[in-house]
Amino acid sequence: MKPTFKGTSFSITRRRFLQSAGTTSTVIWLPGMAYAQALEDVQEKLTGVSKWDLDTPALCVDLDHMEHNFSRIRTTTDRNGIGFRPHAKTHKTPAIAELQIADGALGICTAKVGEAAAMIEHGIKKVLMTTCNVTTHKISLAMELCKRSDQFIQAVFQESNARDLSAAAQEAGVIADVVVDVDPGGHRTGIAPGKPALELAQLVDRLPGLRQRGLLCYDGRVQHEINASVRRSQSVQAMEPAADTLEKMRLSGLNTEIFSGGGTGTYNIDHEIPGFTDVQCGSYLFMDMQYLANESLSGDDSYTDFKPSLTVLTTVVNTHIDGMATTDAGQKSLTIHKPDPKVLGESGVSYRTWGDEFGRITYDEPTRTYQVGDKLEVIVPHCDPVVNLYDVMFATRNNRVEHVWPISARGDAQ
Amino acid sequence: MKPTFKGTSFSITRRRFLQSAGTTSTVIWLPGMAYAQALEDVQEKLTGVSKWDLDTPALCVDLDHMEHNFSRIRTTTDRNGIGFRPHAKTHKTPAIAELQIADGALGICTAKVGEAAAMIEHGIKKVLMTTCNVTTHKISLAMELCKRSDQFIQAVFQESNARDLSAAAQEAGVIADVVVDVDPGGHRTGIAPGKPALELAQLVDRLPGLRQRGLLCYDGRVQHEINASVRRSQSVQAMEPAADTLEKMRLSGLNTEIFSGGGTGTYNIDHEIPGFTDVQCGSYLFMDMQYLANESLSGDDSYTDFKPSLTVLTTVVNTHIDGMATTDAGQKSLTIHKPDPKVLGESGVSYRTWGDEFGRITYDEPTRTYQVGDKLEVIVPHCDPVVNLYDVMFATRNNRVEHVWPISARGDAQ
Q1: Would B238 be classed as within a structural domain?
Q2: Could you tell me which residues are beta bridge partners of residue A127?
Q3: Any idea what the CATH number is for the domain that residue B361 is in?
């Protein structure tokens, strides 16, 4: 049992495989690990093709819809006098982060230090990492990132962790930018608001290796509250203690330049929180069945603020039983999150995953017939974990592939 | 909006990044896309370390347990006079496929042509693809694979598909090996047993581009039937029509050398089916919470036939509320499949994922205390989709890393 694969030969083999496949037929195989050169080949061959000619399952984003969503966030936050700092844990795609920053974002957020590293490596310097780094490996990598970007900020919510970061920063010869993560009451991450948070901010301010930049507070519980007015009141209420903490920090003479939080469900609510600076919206650019279930603040039954841009293409592979058909996108392509995927542009048909590898559509009076080889397009249940299954995303406009984007931070859960 | 990333420079940047990180600290960043050279670096640096020094979340396989499971399948199928053809959709790892074949497997199965391509590219030539290729892309790739391996077999369950395959094979100048997939009554894939299946097998036998090798029949419904005697009777009963079909094929003078099916839940039952040749066990080498819920045929309440070898390591990141703690392995590291993950080696503690990025342990009277930075090891809910989230797997023995295996077919859902 010795290691079988040597990296270099592995890479060369895969490239050769793609090339020779290309000379004898139209085969383009999207490898699970999209190696650099293979990716270039795929980009060259698939840019410009109709999305309906892509093999399936394939992850697509409609650029017109995504740009509509960009515009919606920008104009709303502009009008409300706050900024937006989109969460890249959703898309994990440097090309999209670039577009978001070009569109006026203050920077991006990441959930994990591995995502931050992938973004900074691709030239996305303005990164706020919304969780804290507690392991030796992660702290070391975070200090590397401070060297590579003077706009990398990480969260902290424990005194001992703040001391560890400061010591590591001093050893690395950097000053590490830090925001204090305040628990909104969900108890998942963050320090208790009020005195504990204030004292931690004061400690961060004193520690020689750290620069105190403000606070963050994210309440994941309220984002998917369907009732819009309940969502509004619960969110503002949950954020109140953090706002009070920010005010205490200000009165203590601490830096309060950042008060980041909120998400796609509260992007047009968060400006009501005193001192709030920017919303960490993630899903807004894609949408999914979970967010579409929200009522909009303007009274719509569905979350019509944003247009669904992210879809998975799938092919019918079996139709031998009346009223149902098997497709090729199962739980490894769509996850088992709820609500179920929705078939775009058709009515009278339901989609469910059917084990890891297959999906099933069922229909009583469908608007069309289904034949083996037919392609369908579905909206995904929950965008973040679905994106995390794919190595590339096809960015389309008018159903043509404009770009093949590598999802460079896919799998970066560390 | 033009493509931003050029493959080659991307690769070089990543390599440089890893190297320079290595010179200044102990940082090893496992990139989301494990490029060849980066992988080699990681293998060099992490082979031999204690698994408890790995950063988290990390996917590990205990080699002693895996080898126990190998032995269990081999000795049981030997005794029962059938073969085993493990399903690589579970592990997606060529290094493991090699070990399975060295251990006596007839070959491996794959669910998708992309997985088959990844395996054949790595020298695993004996591949039975258990689903059919209906798109132009997949048929072309399948013919490429026929050229690269004279032991690649694919499934077919439609007459038109058989004709398409034959035409493509003739155009490519190959003979494509085919088995007929028979529907066990679940209606997901396969052709109806009896006359329809027999006629399809006869057609395959006649078509100039195809070589008829036998049939497969897989009943996913019975594998997780908890009650062992129900599982036994339901499985044998569900396979009966396929067995009758095989007998009809034999009487018609057709090749019946392959009758493949079954899985980890029926590996010691399938030999009771007349004509059955080999079991497509997938999960047996890893185990997971779903299969552990099965009763064993020998009467145990749990599926003690196989030892859990696959785990995810996770780190405690928050303990500020009594009776619970937050960990760093959420739905992007463990999925939301049920039953919930189980913490190994500890009692009185429950684990649930807590959103995409975090997990939560809760405890009343735990056997230990939990501090920020502590590492835990959990058995995963359902091994296949969890493995599909990771780029590498750490193969350990006595808690030391022996190999860092690339999960080369990860994400190959096409």
Answers
A1: yes
A2: A108, A152
A3: 2.40.37.20
Q: Looking at the structure, do residues B282 and B382 belong to the same domain, yes or no?
A: no
Domain that holds residue B371: 58-62+304-406
* B100 and B175 inside one domain: yes
Q: Residue B324: list chain A partners with CB under 8 A.
A: 187
Condensed to tens digits (0 to 9), the pLDDT of residues B345-380 reads: 999 999 999 999 999 999 988 888 999 999 999 999
The pairing of strands B310-318 and B324-327 is antiparallel
Runs of H (alpha helix) within A110-227: 113-121, 136-148, 159-172, 195-206, 220-223
Question: What values do phi and psi take at B79, rounded to 5?
Answer: -60, -35
For residue A302, is it left (φ>0), alpha (ψ between -120 and 50) or beta? beta
Residues A103 and A178 in one domain: yes
What was the pLDDT predicted at A1? 27
Question: Considering only CA atoms, which of B358, B384, B231, B219 is closest in space to residue B293?
Answer: B231
Question: Where is the domain boundary, B292, B323, B358?
Answer: B292
Question: End of a domain among B252, B270, B292?
Answer: B292
User: Is the same domain home to B210 and B344?
Assistant: no
CB-CB neighbors (< 8 A) of A333 in chain B: 413
Q: Give yes or no for B151 touching A (CB within 8 A).
A: no
Model pTM score: 0.93
According to the model, what pLDDT value does residue B46 have?
A: 92
A-chain CB neighbours of B408 within 8 Å are: 5, 32-33
In whole angstroms, give the CA distance from residue B155 to residue B280: 14
CB-CB under 8 Å, B63 with A25: no
Quote the ipTM score.
0.93
Same domain, A130 and A103: yes
**Interchain CB contact of B7 with A (< 8 Å):** yes
A339 touches chain B (CB under 8 A): no
The CATH number that applies at residue A74 is: 3.20.20.10
Probe site for chain B from A27, A54, A286 (most B CB atoms < 10 A): A27
For residue B172, give the chain A residue with the closest CA.
Answer: A24
Distance (Å) from the alpha carbon of A230 to chain B's nearest alpha carbon: 21
Whether residue B273 lies inside any domain: the answer is: yes
Fill in the DSSP letter of residue A87. Answer: B
- For residue A97, the tally of other CB atoms under 10 A from its CB is 29
pLDDT in tens, B319-336: 989 999 999 999 999 999
CA–CA separation, B390 vs B380, rounded Å?
13
Asked if B329 lies within 8 A of A413 by C-beta distance, the reply is yes
Residues A67 and A154 in one domain: yes
List CB contacts (< 8 A) between A161 and chain B: 372
Q: Are the beta carbons of B172 and A356 separated by less than 8 Å?
A: no
Separation between Cα atoms, residue A289 and residue A334, nearest integer Å: 12
Q: Per the structure, how many domains does chain B have?
A: 2
Mean pLDDT (chain A) is: 91
- In a domain, residue B34? The reply is no
Residue B286 DSSP class: T
Q: pLDDT at residue A41 above 60?
A: yes
On whether the CB atoms of residues B352 and B340 are closer than 8 A, the answer is yes
Same domain, A391 and A267: no
Q: What is the CA radius of gyration of chain B?
A: 23
Question: How far is residue A256's CA from residue A213's CA, in Å, rounded to a whole number?
Answer: 6
Residue labelled with tokens 């507690």: A134
Taking 90 as the threshold, does the pLDDT of residue B255 lie above it?
Answer: yes
- Whether A3 sits inside 8 A of B403 (CB atoms) is yes
pLDDT of A367 reads 80
Touching check for B315 and chain A: CB below 8 Å? yes
Q: How far apart are CA B390 and CA B407, in angstroms?
A: 7
Considering the domain architecture, whether residues B281 and B378 belong to the same structural domain is answered as no
What DSSP element (H or E) covers A379? Answer: strand A375-379
The reply to whether residue B413 touches residue A157, judged by beta carbons under 8 angstroms, is no
pLDDT beyond 70 at A14: no
Asked whether residue B323 is assigned to any structural domain, the reply reads yes
